[in-house]
Predict the structure.
Amino acid sequence: MKKLLYYSGFIFLLTCVSCADDFLDTTSPSKLSSETVFKTSSMAKAAIMGMYGKMTDSYIYGQKLSVNWQGFSDIESNQGFTATAYNSTTSDQGAGNFYDDPYNQTTKWQALFQLAELASSAVDGIRNSPILESQAAQMKPLLGEALVMRSLAYFELVRYWGDVPFKEGTSKSDLSNVYIGKVDRDVIYEHLVQDLTEAQGYLPWLKTSAEYATVERITKGFAKGLLARVALFAGGWSLRDGNLFTGKDLEHHPTIPETGGYFVGRVKNWRDYYAIASQQTAEIIGNPANPHRLDPDYENIWKTVCGLQQNVNNENLFEVAFGLGNNGDIGSLMGYEVAGNSRYGARGFGGTYVGSHAYYFYSFTPEDKRRDVTLSWLNYTKDNVEGVKTDPLSVNFAKWRIYWMSSSYLAMHKTANSRIATGVNWILMRYSDIYLMYAEAESALNGSEAVNPVVGMSPKQALEKVRERAFGTGSAKIQAYDPDFFEAIVNERAWEFGCENIRKHDLIRWGLLYDRLETMKKTLCLMFDNKQPVKIFDKTYQPTDFPKTVYYKFKDAEYIDKSSLNYYTNLPASPGPEYKSVTWFPTSAQKPVSGTNKNYIDWPVKTLLAGTGLAKEYDYSSFLSSLTNGTEIQSSLAQYSKGNGNCYYRHFFAIYYEDIFESKGKISNSYGF
């Protein structure tokens, strides 16, 4: 893939356009005014390219928004389950479990505000450019890109911090718009919808010109898709500070408790936002000029991006571009696990910065092709052969694999003594999301059978389009989904987007984050107990459905034959002499007659501690009374603190103390931080 020259553009922009060190600092190193920069289309383009470079910052998509801040959901875990750092208020791991603190340096918003300020400088500069109309073919698409990037920066700020300082333009020299308080997120969302509506009118479709031939540039499809995503969040649920914006008439969540003026709410005109999402996605799917298609092979999406290639079907609407050896940790911090000192080199690859578990694995239908692309119990060992991991709380996401990486990366990794930047792009939106957003929004407005004339497709047909790829054309499984269509959407988005930093935010806007987390945790404990039937998504498993032993054989001298693993069948004996075996979790989780194995206590304790910063308090005593070893588990669990002690559904980060101090009293933390 032709990579953007983000670095030169970035340096140029920082020396030519007013940029803040943080959202309150308006000093500029510039000797050239933005008026000068935007007098030519070539300089304007350089400024825009600089913003693409800023997106690779480690506190934006370089690491935080792609890896560290995925946090706990019902399908993802933050650096694995642990009983030590789960409630740390000085780390990403604690923040991922919804414990945060104003002094936590790992959850600062500075870089996102810098991106917003850069984008605002570009928007203002292009709007005031003397060549905006005379060179509209060059300048207006650049304006569209700047509007989208500003919207994206504020969208992430609102999703992670809630109500934040917001201004449409750049910081003024008299500081009149710098020291400002929090702005109501609903007002911010209104502005983002306006900006994105304007932007999509300026931008071309992908590959309609040489200038916009790569998904590393923002084009019409992504602008419309982002507008749909923003609209769904604008109409969705989130934690509110009723002490900050008093007298506001919002819909309150019917089941999530309110305390201290904090409540979960959404705007009463949420249907208007869903109509925007339905319209934008329908216009993408139904437009014959739209170049985006589903890649017929789900695995190929990830092979392609790992290999630094552009998807030939244009499945991806936009990718944040990274440079091999320069930046980007995609794959090296999460992915198929490779041990150090193997034939791939002294350094390992992949890992559990974001991991998963047996609950998510068993939520998949066995025939779903996405399962073994998304998850892997297998790992590559230092003995240069694959092995089978058996920890049910540490299943690796596998969309990024070392043997799919480019030959250039493999050569660098083989001799590396420290982590090498993979250069793998971060996919911000895929075409399957367009189908599923359309299915969700249109069904909420008009029902699952309604056919929107713009797209000529019903929500059910859109959902089944995604499922067709997962199961193959003609499969009876395509239409075998939850009869409650909303539940079907909730489940499908889990199977489609694992480890893409989508699930936690989906659950938040649906008002389901707490319920789904607790369901996952308690179900895992029941799976360990292995005495009762369990329901995982739309499936019910009997205790005997989980094998005591998993057998496997190799397809060659190095790699395991995945089809040989009996994940769903409890075999009475080995299928043959060529098979090896590992003890599976129903056996490993049982209390031993003798020995030091304490999985029967440790696994449930780690599971129940996960994500406990979300609610004010937790009490698992009643649930544990139903488990075989519940008394011992409860005794161990009692030594750990649980709950944030302040409010329910606290999914936001705290504002960093320096930003509060520098605001001159204009902003403060909410939600008990």
